[in-house]
Amino acid sequence: MFLCVSCFDQWSDSAPDPMTWDEAIKYCDELENKGHDDWHLPTISELRMRITDCPATESDGSCPVSEIDNHLTWDDLKEEFGCDGCNDGKNHSPYYSKDTGWYWSSSARSEDSIVAFRVNFDTGAVGNYNKDHKFNVRCIRDIDW
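The structure assignment produced for this chain is given below.
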């Protein structure tokens, strides 16, 4: 499990309200938080770094959904829509009760322009959904992992 406690400062506070994917991109681009203004909506790989105690979908888990160097992959994905989480009744965010439900990533499916990937911290699941639906948002700053 990857858990970088010092990296918490590189994540913004959670947005006050759920928003569409386009709103989330704009929100992060315009955000001033914790004395910084260089935020962006995290890629699915960055967002998966926040998953804890769910080995299959943590960043080094078996879930094949990732984005590295602006290249989105989900090779060998058994389900077209994502990877099941742990469904064990635990919250799977290092922020615990602060991150609940689905959170948007910036990773959009190239073959389906209306769909982007997301993470559910209640279950650890990774999935995708229509960009016009409203989900939670937490932004990240560019850092060297």
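Interim note for the steering committee: The two ends are 14 Å apart (CA to CA). The first strand starts at residue 39 and ends at 40.
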